[in-house]
């Protein structure tokens, strides 16, 4: 539904970096070769969306732009070179945009311009995101969803489907280190937005999870939430105490007679050089794997080098996921192996209109650890 005419739409814009956002009437984009225009049904708001646009995180991005994040939408129009996507299809829009002639240039739509000259150039061309009634997206970032299966047979609502965009992040790291069914993975910290997502995903992938966190309440909530779906020994919790010896002893006790195969790190910048990081690495079996997906900005994070070398540990960094990872992830959801929304014990996603963007950003920041999603619904009055 457009707001006034069929040629204009509402969009949540920012004219200069870190200045307040404003809802404006702008032209609906048109589909050109290589693109699709989507009607945005629900766009994700993450725990630090506010920090991106108010400059707290100092993310580089181009302005003016329409703000946004990954979203669920319906195809409004496709460019003339589209061979599969069709008007009316329900789709997931992934914000990870890669250069078509050199995929090492990557940026996140409407969030960060990436770290290369090419990615910055690319963002100039694709500046506008999903906090609008319509968005123009690169064709390769639009993934068709099996609507009959997801919304019919599995009974999901649009906001449930949006939670896939959060779970895709840990998916990128966990499949990058080849997490296998029956293996044991430490997730730390496991109490934030992507950490709780990693726990849910690793369980669905068939792994045993040791969730580390400072917040005992959230750790208990995680055990409770998954207790109906999985036996108690599939999800163990270990407190982050700030004492290396204590944390290593607790990890050993949690693992019992089985080895710890992998460590999924999703540390925020505030946790740089925290004890749990070393404790988890030191607790890995020989040839264990580590996925580094955290937001630590320092180039000087301490690594227990001696241990990494002698134990043949593999350290892999991962920004988001690869394009080919997305259809694999969708298969997991469509097969019913990974549950979403209420089926996964999650509270209903909180919905806000574009005009309520401030409330939405605050809400997302305050509810990161209880696993409750937040979204903007541009058509909402
Ligand atoms: N690689 C990628 O592609 C990618 C994608 C998305 C996000 N990220 C990064 O992932 C990080 C986490 O994002 P998020 O949205 O999950 O953040 P979040 O919801 O704010 O969660 C942060 C988590 O870190 C914990 N924590 C904070 N300070 C800590 C400390 N000093 N010691 C131990 N634990 C601490 C919090 O625990 P408490 O509950 O105890 O405070 C919470 O569990 C971000 O920094 C982001 O930049 C990376």
Automatic annotation (TrEMBL):
Residues 195-334 form the Alcohol dehydrogenase-like C-terminal domain. Residues 33-145 form the Alcohol dehydrogenase-like N-terminal domain. Pfam families: ADH_N, ADH_zinc_N. This is Alcohol dehydrogenase. The keyword Oxidoreductase applies. Keywords: Oxidoreductase. Coiled coil: none annotated. The lineage of its organism: Eukaryota, Fungi, Dikarya, Ascomycota, Pezizomycotina. GO terms for molecular function: oxidoreductase activity.
């Amino acid at each position: 539904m457009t707001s006034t005419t069929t040629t204009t739409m509402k969009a949540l814009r920012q004219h200069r970096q870190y200045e307040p956002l404003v809802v404006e009437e702008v032209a609906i984009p048109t589909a050109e070769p290589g693109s699709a225009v989507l009607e945005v049904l629900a766009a994700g708001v993450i725990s630090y969306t506010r920090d991106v646009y108010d400059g707290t995180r100092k993310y580089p991005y181009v302005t003016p732009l329409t703000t946004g994040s990954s979203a669920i939408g319906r195809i409004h129009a496709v460019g003339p070179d589209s061979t599969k996507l069709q008007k009316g299809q329900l789709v997931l829009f992934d914000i990870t945009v890669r250069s078509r002639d050199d995929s090492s240039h990557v940026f996140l739509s409407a969030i960060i311009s990436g770290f290369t000259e090419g990615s910055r150039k690319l963002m100039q061309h694709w500046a506008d995101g999903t906090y609008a009634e319509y968005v123009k997206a690169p064709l390769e970032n639009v993934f068709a969803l099996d609507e009959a299966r997801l919304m019919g047979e599995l009974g999901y609502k649009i906001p449930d489907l949006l939670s896939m965009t959060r779970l895709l992040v840990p998916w990128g790291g966990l499949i990058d280190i080849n997490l296998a069914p029956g293996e044991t993975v430490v997730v730390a910290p496991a109490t934030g937005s992507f950490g709780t997502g990693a726990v849910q995903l690793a369980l669905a992938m068939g792994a045993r999870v040791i969730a580390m966190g400072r917040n005992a309440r959230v750790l208990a909530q995680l055990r409770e939430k998954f207790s109906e779906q999985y036996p108690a020994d599939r999800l163990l919790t270990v407190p982050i105490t700030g004492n290396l010896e204590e944390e290593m002893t607790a990890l050993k006790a949690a693992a019992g007679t089985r080895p710890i195969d992998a460590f999924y790190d999703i540390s925020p910048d505030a946790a740089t050089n925290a004890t749990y990081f070393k404790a988890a690495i030191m607790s890995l079996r020989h040839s264990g794997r580590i996925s580094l997906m955290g937001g630590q900005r320092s180039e000087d994070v301490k690594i227990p080098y001696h241990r990494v070398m002698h134990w043949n540990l593999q350290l892999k960094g991962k920004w988001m996921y690869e394009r080919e990872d997305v259809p694999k992830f969708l298969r997991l959801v469509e097969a019913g192996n990974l549950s979403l929304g209420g089926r996964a014990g999650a509270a209903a996603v909180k919905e806000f209109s574009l005009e309520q963007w401030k409330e939405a950003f605050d809400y997302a920041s305050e509810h990161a650890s209880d696993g409750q999603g937040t979204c903007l619904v541009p058509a909402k009055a």
